[in-house]
Amino acid sequence: MNAVPDAILTLAANVRLAIFDVDGVLTNGQLLLGPQGEELKQFHVRDGHGLVMLRESGVTLAVITGRKSPVVAARMAELGIHFVYQGQRDKLQAFDALLAELKLSPAEVCYVGDDLPDLPVMKRVALSVAVADAHWAIAEAAVWRTSLPGGQGAVREVCELVMRARGTLAAQLAHYGAVA
Amino acid sequence: MNAVPDAILTLAANVRLAIFDVDGVLTNGQLLLGPQGEELKQFHVRDGHGLVMLRESGVTLAVITGRKSPVVAARMAELGIHFVYQGQRDKLQAFDALLAELKLSPAEVCYVGDDLPDLPVMKRVALSVAVADAHWAIAEAAVWRTSLPGGQGAVREVCELVMRARGTLAAQLAHYGAVA
Amino acid sequence: MNAVPDAILTLAANVRLAIFDVDGVLTNGQLLLGPQGEELKQFHVRDGHGLVMLRESGVTLAVITGRKSPVVAARMAELGIHFVYQGQRDKLQAFDALLAELKLSPAEVCYVGDDLPDLPVMKRVALSVAVADAHWAIAEAAVWRTSLPGGQGAVREVCELVMRARGTLAAQLAHYGAVA
Amino acid sequence: MNAVPDAILTLAANVRLAIFDVDGVLTNGQLLLGPQGEELKQFHVRDGHGLVMLRESGVTLAVITGRKSPVVAARMAELGIHFVYQGQRDKLQAFDALLAELKLSPAEVCYVGDDLPDLPVMKRVALSVAVADAHWAIAEAAVWRTSLPGGQGAVREVCELVMRARGTLAAQLAHYGAVA
User: Chain B partners of C49 at a C-beta cutoff of 8 Å?
Assistant: First the structure.
């Protein structure tokens, strides 16, 4: 794994809730539209596996997205994502509701974003992460940037960062016979 | 943001109408065709957000494309693009009609293109922009080139360039808590 | 345009028939399959424009492909490709039939390929071209390689190479106000 | 072809069964989902041609994948893959069954993977291969890495490596008039 500064690992060690934007974070940002107005989406298989491991390691998972699509609901259900907020023009509202419901503080939250609508939430949480190809204002505001772009492994990096910091990565890897 | 020469910012400061080609500019140039002859298209989510901000900042938006597809109509409506010209073999005709309707001069127009059919309009407008992967003749003719390719952020760059030059970028960024 | 050796321009000047493989040459090689076994394909808009110009400049156009798909028939018809051979396990058979029908010699033919099934035809024609990401044996056998990969501009490069060598590029460019 | 160490060629010379993961190995890892929950997949045409040649050269072919999709069944049938195991949470089970049925030892098997679920099988076989963009733990565990990413030529590289080591590549190439 890439070298991660101790300060970031300290923030990641406190994470109990990981929130992800969808378009540009769980996807590469391409909106694939069909002739009847239907929307198709591409998710990366290795990102999905990271989310499953992070969930199994005891972290609560959520997505907050401005768009609305049945494909997102289906994929998030397949991965066992606990909370799925779609059609959120103002992401802070969903964020506040979620923290209240889970009785968590922003210090226990990681948020991964790529563009301006993610910024208000990113400024609140302790571990704000920008994907490698994020908008410049997001890259500047985040405390950590992934080395891979959105939809191409960025989410997997974050999942492993959090598990490593929390001390749960070794157990997940050991399940497959791998060593951290 | 990338450094932009003052001469380009001066041209961009006058823009009241921004016109975009579709295939190769708002998309990466790939025409995705299904078995019944239907066409699917991929648009980038961060380009879309740039267009919405540019529109909200007071610039009129238009697309002029040689092809014709219901997907383009749907996506442009979703983004609130004011004028959508499809099936235009000769783009100058739509361009002239649009300027007459809006009572604008070419000095107030930005056009973003990627290939030869864009050239006649690009030679007319003050701010002609080529996407990073444009045809060589377009790259040569344009007064500015984006650093990202079509369908992968080129349009977002142009939106922010125009807003910055017009002095409206800071307000758009501030809405999300970002600083220019 | 890229520098092209005089020897290649001499071969290209004689071209009266340009033949293209489909998958990996007119596309990026990805076979996109849907749940009912249907096949979707992606073609690049700038490649398409090059083919239209090459046809208008007086060169006969053909594709020879091992696969078979209604999407190919539809796109080739849209571009006005004169001869479309699908489902050709042995491409030499279609090649020989085509040359006999058109009363052309191999010295008047350009063929663009990416993989081993293209090799027998490539060894026959004067101007054999490999796309930038072709199989190593094709890259070695070809007299010229494009700088762009298949489905991403390789075909456009070949179209302009042939037009330039035949002295027809300037007229095509002039139509749009561009200079060679 | 790339230089391959003699030790790898020695392992490859013994291969009588080649097993491939699907997502991330035969594809680029993108799961393309439609609005009715249907899944589309992209396979590379040059990978497909490599698999056909490897099969014709006398090697038994299999895929073992954790997901389940009719598209995989259709494409694998088109390529003549002998054994297709889908929906395998534990890949070792399918692996053990396959070796028992074929009366082969792990020393006669090549496995190509990209992520942790592939690791248990990769640790068993003699020739374990990681695609160029594999997860770091897979890249570390594999005895060989391809130079191309999954879904973009990685499988073709493995097919040619095995054929070269077994002395069957020259005959396959000669069929098309190519020289090894």
Answer: 115-117
